[in-house]
Amino acid sequence: MTGIFGGSFNPIHLGHTGLAQWIVQQGYADEVWLMVSPQNPLKEENSLLPEKQRFSLARTAVRHIAHVKASDFEFHLPRPSYTWQTLQALEEAYPTQEFALIIGADNWLCFDKWKNYKKIVENYKILIYPREGYDITSALPENVTLMNAPLFRFSSTDVRRRLIKGEDVSEMIDRKVHERILSEHLYETYRHNTTKNK
Question: Which stretches in the chain have pLDDT values below 70?
Answer without folding.
Answer: 40-46, 189-198
